[in-house]
Amino acid sequence: MVNISSGAAIKPYSGWSVYCTTKAALDMLTKTIAVEQEGKNSNLKCMAIYPGVVDTAMQKQIRKTPKKDFNDVERFISLKKNKELFTPNEVADKIVTLITEDKLPNGAIYDLRDAKF
Predict the structure, then answer these.
(1) Would you say 34 and 93 are in contact if contact means Cβ atoms under 8 Å apart?
(2) CATH code for the domain of 89
């Protein structure tokens, strides 16, 4: 089981209380499922991935948000302008590699920006 989490699980953003909270909850769900599988005759492995900032429709919407509604909007505009966003395909390829090469332990919370492959 691969959950797509976010750095927002550990870094709060003003205006993102629900998003940050649900991503933090997803991380705990991932860890809890992993603990629940210990000692069972189960092949289930559960992990959560922080994909980095991905150029998605969500990012497009974020960049359109007025500064008065989202103090950090300039950071996201700058990431796009400086071509620092990952494509969905780049993220998917890295996740497939992590899974097929069995690189992560059960319960891992992993930031793809730390990938060395």
Answers:
(1) no
(2) 3.40.50.720
